[in-house]
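Q: How would the structure tokens look for this protein?
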Amino acid sequence: MFLFLSIFFVVVFLILLFSVKLNDLRKDFSEGVLVESENQTKEEKGERRFKIIDDIVSFLHLGPEIPPPPKIEWIKYQGCVTDGLLNGYGGKTKEMIAMINRSECKYLHRAIETWLSAPDFKEIKKNMKKLDKQKGFVVGMFFAEAIDKKDKFYFSNEKRNFDFSKMCREGSDNFWGEHTCIPSFSKKEYRRYVLYTAEKAMDLGVQVFLFGQVYYQDDVSRAEIAQVLADMREYADFKGMEILIGAQTNDITDEKYLKLFDFIEGGVGIDENGKVEDLPCSSKWWDEEKGGWCWALLWHEKYASKANNVLVHLDWSGRIGDDMSTFARMEPQKRIETLSRLYNNFQEKEIGFLMPFLAVIPENNGSCFGPKRGYYSADNQYGCKDEDGINKILKQASQKE
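A: Here is the predicted structure in token form.
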């Protein structure tokens, strides 16, 4: 017993000593490397070393358990759209988490949302603790193509708030409404924000990241996102965890660019009968002879053959006639029949179809809804009551594991 206690106290002492040394080293970097460097590459390297040291200290004291690697089969065949679940977007967060805990979901798509708002990690951490650990959920985060220039988010590496107005793509002011813009990877401040935010998310155990409408955020010919992706994966390696990164790529066909991502993601474009088209672009806006704007149907070989993996879902824009609007307006039996058909058809093509549990719908949709009129929920407590039917379909996923 005495020997055990002696070893224990020696180990504790060494950890404390190591932490003090790392804190000293962190101070050197913060006061030296970060301040003195004017060169962008060196500065960013300095920031990275500073952040790594900071995380070593945090890990020694409060480091969370490293989650198991996220299997792509989980993502493709047991994935569920849970838009803003951990942000509390749709209201009644406790009830919504309870629904997910009793579900057959494994991957929680877009559980962390960032549309026009930087993530509140204090709130997210609190809600993540409510998830059933025995289920081993894989949590996904969405980097939206829309930011609020007046948003506030603290950048602890430099002891200041990020300046969102310095993240904007040229000519995109007020694109999504007053004092909004499209962020651009050509902007250093945005690259810093994404990497810092992704690292904070990984510290909480988040393992899947999705970039919204990446053709808005990045120039495909320059692929400035590539270094950010490499840095994200480097940080994951440092933490001893694995991550998956995807993007909404629409009609991008550059194979080298598409292969930067572990998966590409997009909508399905259902009609009122729940049917989808087998065309490269939705016929709503595109004609094979006349052309037009292409809303890409990513299961088409034009895109799927060039991507690592493809995920599709019922898309939403908050406007009547989009996928979620059309789906929510269906009769209950038809909704489940539609989901079953889509899930099985896409599974045969090795395309992942994400089941809708929580998503945005128009407030004036005239359909069933969840805790709010503008938010669909599959929860049996509300009007749509789809959760039992969806969970029955998802049980088929065990055949893919």
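The radius of gyration is 22 Å.

Confidence is low (pLDDT under 50) at residues 24-47, 57-61.

Upvote if useful.
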